[in-house]
Structures are given as C-alpha cells and as structure tokens.
Amino acid sequence: MSMKKSQHVYAAHLKKSSESSDKSSILFWMLSGIALIFLLWAPFQRGLFNGNNFDFERPLYSSFVWASVVLILLSIYLYFHWRLKEKSDLSIIIAWLLPITYFISTFVAASTNYAANSVYIQIIYVAFFSLAYYLTKEDLGLTILKYGFISTSYFVVIFGIMNWFGNKEAAFALVKWFAANMEPNTSYLHAVMSDSNGPRLTSVFQYANSYAAFLIAVLLVAIFLVITSSKWYSIGIHAFMVIPIIISFFVTLSRGALVILPIVLLLVLPFLKPRKQVAYLIHFVLSFGLSVVILNKVTTIGVTLFQGFKSDLSISGWTNLLVISLIYAVLAVLIQRFASPWIEKLTSRFEEKRFAFLAIPVVAVIVGGIGAVLLFTDTGVTKLLPENIRTRIENINFQQHSVLERGTFYKDAMKLFEDYPVFGAGGGAWPALYEKYQNNPYISRQAHNFFLQYLTDVGIVGIVVFLTFLIFIYYIYIRNFIYQDEQTRNKRFIFYIVSISLLVHSIIDFDMSFVYLGMLLFLSFGIMISNDTMELGGQWKEVLNSKKWAYPSVVLLVSMLLFFTSVKLLSADSQFNQSKAIAASGNNNLNDILAPLDNALSQHPNHPDYVYQKVSILFQVYNQTKDEKYFTEATNLLDQALQKEPFNFPLVDRKIYSLILKDKTEETLQFTNEKLHSFPWKVYLYEVAISLNTDLGHKARESKNTQKQDEYWNQAFELYNQFEARKKELALLPKEQGQGQAFDETGKMGLALGQIQFVRGKYDAAEAMFRIGIGGPLENQTTKQNIRWYLASLQKQGKADQALYDKLIAQDPNERQEIQNLINAKF
User: Which Pfam family, giving just one, matches this sequence (predicted)?
Assistant: First the structure.
C-alpha cells in the first residue's frame, strides 16, 4: 500500500515537473522571439532616440509595451524558477533601484513629462537586463541572443553602406514595413546627412557620433569572432564584414570615436591570452590597412552620390568594397588556419609569465603613440586619407570647437547639479533646464556626457546607485572570468566588448539617449553575469527564497501598470497625430480638430506639445470670435500645464501672449522678469520686458506720476545693461568656440529705449538707440517707427539723413507729418 502511494507521489511530481518544464520552454521561446524582433525593430526606429519631443515619442511608447510584455512573461517564468542562489541573482534586485531613483526624482522634476518617460525607459532596461540574465543561463538562449545581436548589427552596417552608395530607396524598401515613419520620404531620412564637414554616414541613428560608437563595438566584436571561430566559413563571414564596418566608421567623420577606439581596444586586449592578442592586433592592423587602400575612392563616391545618384559610381563603390572585403576574408581564413598555430607556439612560453597579458597592450600603446604622432604632426601620413577625413583628424586638439563646447556643457551640468544635488531634477533635467544654467546661448538638448546627464537627472543618490550597479556587474564578470576556461570565457566576451565600448564613448557623447543602445548595454550586462558560479552566503536568502512568489508578484504588478500606461500613451499619441492631420487637411471644423486632441489630453494630461497645440487653436478661435469661453479654457489649460512644465519655453511664450492679449501689462512684466531667471539668454524676453517697462513708464508719465515713470524706465535700462553685460561675456569666448544663437539688440528694444531718451531730451542717445532698428524693410512697422523717431531725433539735433527721409516719404507720404508731430511734441 505504501509502495503504491509512493509511486503515485513520484508520478505526480514527475507530471508537475514535466508541466513546469513545458511552460518554461514555451516562455523561453516567446521571450527569445521578442528579444530577436526587438533587436531588429529597435535600431530602425531612429535608434529609439529619446529626443524629449513628440516627434520621437511614438516608438518609445511602443517600446514601453514591448518591455511590459517581456516583464509579464518573465514574472510567469519566475513563479517557477526564482530563487537567490548566486551572487549575480542580487543584481536583478539591485537593477530595480535604477527606475526607483528616477521615480523618486519625479517629485522634484523640472519636467513631469520628461521625468515620467525616463522612469519608463529605466524599466525597459531592467526588463531586457532580466530577460538576458535568465534566458542566457542556458547555452541555447546565449546562442540566440549572441547571433541575434551579431546578425542585426551586421544588417544595420549593410543598411548604412547601401545609403552611402546611393541605394537609399532600395535600403528603405527592405525595412519600411517596420521602420519609423519617414513619410513623405521614400528613403530613411538623414541616413547620410551633411554638416560643415560634408556628408556623414549616420545609418539608422541620424547622428554620426553615436553610430560611430556602435561601430566600435561591432568592429571589435567582429575581429574577436574572427580569431575565435573554429569553422572556416564562420571566420570568413565575420572577416567579410570587418572592412564595411571600418569604412562606415571612417565616413562617420567622428573625431571622438577615433580617439575612443584605441582606448576601448586597450580595455579589451588584457582579457585575451597573448597569442590571441597578437592575432587580434594582426587582424586589426591588416583590416585597417586594406580599408585605407579603398578609403579615398569610396569616400569620394559617397560624397558625390549624396548630391545625386549615378549608377556607375554606385556600382564602382560596391565593387571596390566587395573585392577588398573578399580579399581580407580569404586572408583572415588563411591566417587563422595556418599562421595562428605558429603564433600559439611562439607565445606559449611567454604566456606562462605572470604579467604576460599586459605586455602586448603596453607595446600597443607605444606603437599607437608613435602612430598618433605620425597622424597629428606634419609628417605627410594623413595625405593618404581623403580630404574630409584628413581635415577631421588634423583638427583633433583641445582647442577645437567641439571640445570647447563639451567643456562648457560639462561646467553647466555641474552648475545644474549644485542646485539639485541629492535626487537631481528628474529625468530629462538637462533638456528642461540647460537654458537656465548655460554659459552662452548654445542649443544642445544633450549634455554630451552620459554620466553627467545621469547626475543631473537623479543626483548623488541616483549616480551612487548606478555606479554601485556597474561595479557589481563588472566584479561578478571579472571574478568569474578569472576562473573560467578559455572556451567558457569566449562565449560571453563579445558582450563585455559591447558594454565597455558604449560606456567609454558615452563619456563624450549622448549615446545612452538612444534607448536601443541603452538596451544593448543592459542586455550585455545580463549576459555577462548569467553564468555566475559564486554562491550567495547567509541565512537571510533562505527567508527570501521561502517567499519566492513575492518578487515575481511585484514584477507582474509593475509590468501590468506599465502595459496599461503605455497603451494609454500610444493612444494619446495617435489621437494627437489625428488632430494634426485633420488641421493640416484644411478642415476648419473646430469640433473635428479638438475632439481627438481632447482625447489625447485626457489620456496624457499636461503633455506640453498637446497643450501647446490646443492653446494655440483656442487663442486663434478667440481672436476670431471674441468669445471669452475659448480664452478662459486656454488660460486654465496653460496655467495647469505650466505648474508641471515651468521651463517649457513654448508654453511660457503662450502665457506671455495671453497676458498681453488682455492688456495685463504689469502682470506680464512680472511674469517675464521671473522667466528671465530661467532663460537668461532669450533675447525675446529682454525685448518684451524692456518694451513693457517703457509702456508702463509712458502711462505713469501721462498720469503725472514721475516717480513711477522713472522707476519703470530705469528698470528698462537696467535690463539693457544686463543684456549688454552678457553680450560682452560672449566676446570673451575662445575664437574657436561658437556662441550659439544670435544675441543682439533688436529693433523693438531700440525703439523702446530710444523713446525714453527722446522724451528725456537726450536726442543723441535716442539717435543711437533708434539706429539699432532702422535697417529692416519699410513694410515692417517696427522698422518704420524706428526710422520716424530716428529722423525726428536727428532734426532735434540740427542734423539730417536726407536719403533715408526721402526713402520713407516715398513709401508713405503721411510720415512727413508724423515726424513733424514728434519734433513739435511737448513731453
């Protein structure tokens, strides 16, 4: 009887185990499929750039849905498998502190919208970190993600090369069914884009420097796969892709990446055995040497094709590239089959020495230093390179504008951090606040340094948590690496390369603002530590393991919240785009336009772009109908949004407009003065404040209140003096550094200040002020008024500008009397 019972128990256990295994298998393949699809889809959504603008938001909202589905499936998987065993298991819990610190910072956020998006983005990272960690505990999962990353990365490179060689329509035809919407374009917008340096390859990212960072990772991974693959065809495939990657790298014209590449290489080499280091450097030098052979030609072809497609040039470019790629692939196979054993034999004794793994990197540093001297001094070596690349290399120095500008960004970021030191100013702190702290009126919604931008987002608490997480990941990886055999190390090493490439380059650029690259970073982290063998000690873990349902339950709850939130965000985005499309179609029915816009705002309240759109429409309708309900609704919506987005300048501008519309001059002046502290380089605000002070002074003069008159007019000149002081600061910038936006006196400023001086009888000073605004077209009312007052101030001094006078009178004969009225006026 007891034997029968025992058999039943065993059978039940076996059945339960089988069912659990089946469920895990289904979840495994579902998660693997999602990961592969995301790796293909994400880069073609402009790299999921977090541009803090509605133009970039839809793909981000879609990725929130992806992440929530991943977390839902993971939570189900973890109900069967979650337990704390190895030290790396703690990383899954620590990872959640990243979105938590971002969530805490939302309570002091400079922008509620930016901060909320940043929290969701951090959850994406945790989702893919967790997916990679659990999926790659099995070799099959590791193989799927490894080759998923490699194949999709190679496809991105091929896509970029197709655009460089003018086949942009064909390239886009391959991906347009799932890529970001580029309508009405028939190609992927800005895959090659031009700036002052000429055409630059950006591929899917629309930003050359971040594409170059991606290429550093892919290049070093490809060469590693060349030296570690055992099959000749595998060596050949990876080697064949190396030349296109190097050519792509060069034609990004990224100076920063040229500097970062050798640094990353030096962080990779010590992890290889000396024989592998030698092989790695041979392939590295050989592939770059062969690339230089065709670099001039393919660069010139790409630059020419950017102006217009020519089939013969395109074919020539492809032929050159394919031939050299094939030559290197053959050489790579021969080196690995025949030279590699010889290298291994040569270095076998040397490998036994304690610090042998450092010797070759040290030699590489010395040789690299000599190479740098040859490149950056007048030795003629750079003449082997195309002119645009040669110019970029020769301009690498600490006085170039990009270095100086980055230095300014970093100083300004520290000023921001000093005001929000503990929890930061919320996600998106830099784009929300940089205009308040900027040294000069540049436009840069990115701080060009991931770590500094992270610091401004979440303060010292957040950065400490993140750095702790980083240190923990690399500690686990390196500790395991030391005790693993070479074959085990090689399985995951490419993800160390990816992580270190992206992290190092992100010190000088905003690569992590591309959520795709951030996802790759966290995916790499998860894979790097998923085979951890270090046992977690302590009895406390058994307490947690006894409640193994708790962690999956929390993950499920978070994932469900994220799913419903992201679906709402996607729906709101669709409604907003629908409203814009209706308005653009010429449909003037207010209800048709506002209905989807109201739906968008109900699903995503206080979104600054949605609010701006609706407020602008309501003000337009109010101006046509003078119905107060439209004005009241607009101002209520505006005031509500400004509480959440106080540093959003388009909303600030609408608020000023609404106050001026109702002649609330003093309130407008007070609001404008407040906003000057947040936007000290906005010429428009100085213009408004000076004009309002002038108008209020005139009103005080008319009511015989001399004290108030002088108070307002003195404030106008104080503002002007502040403006001039800031202008003098710009003159102190290094000549290599651009000041950014124009910062010059305007005609309205000159008119307002000139009128004050004219009324005060200081006609020479008035003349100088009016002269600021007399150069524009006479059709412009501000220009016409400036000329009128200018000519009157000249006549008051017994001077004249006959040519300008004749020009004005010819345009409007009534101006003769207007000028005379000013001359005769008694103030």
Answer: Wzy_C
Can you list the alpha helix ranges (DSSP code H) found in 645-736?
A: 649-661, 665-678, 683-702, 706-731
- Token pair recorded at residue 189: 């917008």
Cβ-based neighbour number of residue 525 at 10 Å: 28
Sign of CA dihedral 455, 456, 461, 466: negative
Residue 20 pLDDT exceeds 60: no
- What are the tens digits of pLDDT across the range 205-217? 999 999 999 999 9
Q: CA nearest 622: which of 610, 608, 603, 636?
A: 636
Q: Hey, what long-range contacts does 463-470 have (CB within 8 A, 24 or more apart)?
A: 465/94, 465/97, 465/98, 465/101, 466/98, 466/101, 468/94, 469/91, 469/94, 469/95, 469/97, 469/98, 470/503
Instruction: Residues 587-824: name the CATH superfamily.
Output: Tetratricopeptide repeat domain (1.25.40.10)
In whole angstroms, what is the distance from residue 379 CA to residue 61 CA? 52
- Residue bearing tokens 């997480």: 469
**Mean pLDDT within 400-418:** 91
Which of the 8 DSSP states describes residue 339? I
Number of other residues whose CB lies within 10 A of the CB of residue 620: 13
SS3 of 39-81: the string is HHHHHHCHHHECCCCHHHHHHHHHHHHHHHHHHHHHHHHHHHH
Q: At residue 664, does pLDDT exceed 70?
A: yes
Angle between helix 450-483 and 486-505 (nearest 10): 170
pLDDT band at 14 (very low <50, low <70, confident <90, very high): very low
CA-only gyration radius of the chain, Å: 32
The structural domains of the chain, with segments of one domain joined by +, span: 587-824
